[in-house]
Amino acid sequence: MEIHPKRVHARVLLTSVFGPYAQDDEFGSRAINPMELYHNQVTRAQGSFSVRMFHRSWGIMLIQANISAPCTVLDFPTREAFVRELTANRYDIVGISGIIVNVGKVKEMCRIVREVSPHSTVVVGGHVAAIPGLETMIDADHIVRGEGISWMRRYLGEDDHAPIRHPAIVSGFKTRIMGMRLPQRTGGTAATIIPSVGCPMGCNFCTTSAFFGGKGKFVNFYETGDELFDVMCGIESKLKVKSFFVMDENFLLHRKRAMRLLERMKQAGKSWEFSVFSSANAIRKYTMRELVELGVSWVWMGLESPKSGYAKLQGTDIGQLTRELREHGIRVQGSTIIGLEHHTPGNIAGEIESAASYQTDFHQFMLYTPVPGTPLYQEMADQGRLLPDVNLADIHGQFKFNFRHAAISRDDSKTFLDWAFWRDFQRNGPSLYRMCQTMLHGWQRYKDCSDPRVRERFTRQVKKLVGAYDAMLWVMEREFKKVNRSVSEQIHNLRREVEKEFPIVARLTASLLGPLLLWAARREERRLASGRTYEPPTIIERTNWVSASS
Ligand code: B12
Ligand code: SF4
Hints:
The protein is of the alpha/beta class. The protein has helices spanning 37-41, 58-65, 79-88, 103-116, 149-155, 207-211, 225-239, 255-268, 280-283, 288-294, 318-327, 348-357, 375-382, 410-428, 431-446, 452-480, 485-501, 503-529, 545-549, and strands spanning 12-15, 52-54, 71-75, 93-97, 121-125, 142-143, 169-170, 173-177, 180-181, 191-193, 196-197, 219-220, 243-246, 273-277, 296-304, 331-338, 362-367, 539-543.
C-alpha cells in the first residue's frame, strides 16, 4: 500500500460532516435526522419526554488516538469552521468521516479541500464508503472501506498491529430532558468503550456487519477480558466513571471475554455498570445472575418481528425475556423492523401491537431498508425492486421505503412507522417512566444482595430515582392524563411505591422540583411545536500538536 511521503510527520485533519443537521437542505441534512440518538430513532414521538443528547464521532476520535502524527479532530463543524481550519493550518491529509446519508456533504467537503487546500490528500472513510461507485461521485484520493485505524497507521508508515489505545470518551453530552439541560458533572455520564467493530451474525439488512466483513467476520480491538478490564480501569480513573456504554454490536456474544471481565471485576471489587447491544440468543448464554453481576444495566436488543426467521432470535420468547430482564433491573431497548417481507397492511397493526406489548423501556422502530453494501441491497437490486430516484440522504430507515415491497406502498411505510412510535408511547407511557420502573424493581430485588458490588450499583441508581426522577414522575403523571389515563394511574402507583421506600426525600424533591419541571416541560412542548431543533457545538481537539508547530 502507498505510504504518505511525510509519514508520521504529515499533519492530519480528521473531520465529521458539517451541520446544521436537523433541517432540510440541499446537502442532505434532514429535519427528521437530528444528531441525537434517542430523539432521532427511539423517543422521537415522546415530545418533551424525549431523551435528547449528542454523541461525538467516535470513529475519528479512535483514529486520532492511535496515530503519532500531529492531528486535529474537528467534530460537527459548520462549513465556515471547516474552511477556517483548513486555511489556518496547512494539512497534508484531510480525512472526512461520513455515513451514506451524508454523501452530499462529503462531496461538498472534498470540493472545499480542493479549493482552499489543494496540496492536501483527501481520504474518505466511514460507512459512506460502502456506496458502490463512490469514486465517481466525489473527488477523493483514497476511499477507505472497513476498519480505519489500521488503514491510517499503514498510510503513515506506522505499525498497524500495535495495540489499540482507547481514548477517554464521555458517551453523551448536552443532555436535555423535559426542557431542562442536565448538568454535565464529572463522572455523571457513562464513558464509551469500543471493544470491536462489525458483527459475525450477518443479518441480511445489517450495514455494520456488512461493512466490517459480513457473516462470520468482525474486527476485535480487545481480544480478552483482561485487556478490556485494563482499558476500563484507565478510563475509570481519567473520567471518574463507573458506567460504560459498550459500543460493540454484539458484546455478549463473546462469552469468554465477558466472563473473564467479570472475574477481574469481582477480584478488584468493581461495581461497574454496562449498557450493551446484544442479540437475544447471546443474552440467553447467561443466567440473570451473571448478567446482574457483570453489571449489565441496559441492553439494546434487536426484536425484528415475532415471525422473522433471524438466527439471533431462534428459540427465544421475547416477551418473557424482556419481562425477566426488567424484573432484574436491566433496562431493555427493543428494536423492531417495520416492513419485513411478510408484513401486509392486514397484519402490520398486529405486529406493531405485539412489539408494543413487550413493554420494553425504550423501543426503536426502523423500516426494513436495503442499504448499499448489504446482502439485502444486492438481493433487491438483483430482483429489480430498488426504487429509482430515491436520494441517498433518505435511505436510512426513518423515512420511507427505498424498495418495492410486495404489499406495502412507499407512502404507507411511513404511516406505519410513525404509528409504531406513537402506539408504543401511548400504550406504555414515556420511556423515562418505564426506566424508573425497571430501576425500582432492580433495587427492590438486589438491595440486600450478597455481592456488595451489585448492592452498590443499585443503590447508586436508586439515588437518582429518589431525586430528580421522582420529580419527573410527578410531571409525567400529570401530563400523561391527556394521552392515556390508565398509564397516568400506573405512574401514580409507581410514585407511591418510590415514596413508600423513601418517604421523606422522594416527597420533598417531587414537591420542590416537580412544579419547576412541569413549567419547563410545558415550555419545551411549545418550543417543539414552533419548530425548535437542537444542534451540537463544534469541537476541536489536537494531539501531538507541539511537534507540529516546531
Ligand atoms: C453513534 C452513532 C450515531 C450518532 C452520531 C455520531 C456522530 N457524531 O456522527 C447519532 C446517534 C447522532 C447517529 C445518527 C444517525 N445515524 Co448513526 N450510528 C451510530 C453508531 C451507533 C455508532 C458509530 C460508531 O461510533 N461506531 C464505532 C466506530 C469505531 O466505528 P465507525 O464510526 O464505523 O468508524 C470506523 C470505520 O468506519 C472507519 N472510519 C470512520 N470514519 C473514518 C474516516 C476516515 C478518514 C477513515 C480512514 C476511516 C474512518 O474507521 C473507524 C474505526 O475502524 C452506528 C452503528 C455502529 N455500530 O457503528 C450508527 C450508524 C453509523 N448510523 C447510521 C444511521 C443511518 C444514522 C442516522 C441516519 C439515523 C438513522 N435513521 O438510523 C443518523 C444520521 C445523523 C446525521 N444527521 O448525520 C447507520 C449508517 C448506515 C450507513 N450504511 O451509512 C449506522 C451504521 C447504524 C446502522 N446500522 O444503521 N448515529
Ligand atoms: S445481530 Fe444485530 S448487529 Fe449482528 S448482524 Fe444482526 S442486526 Fe447486525
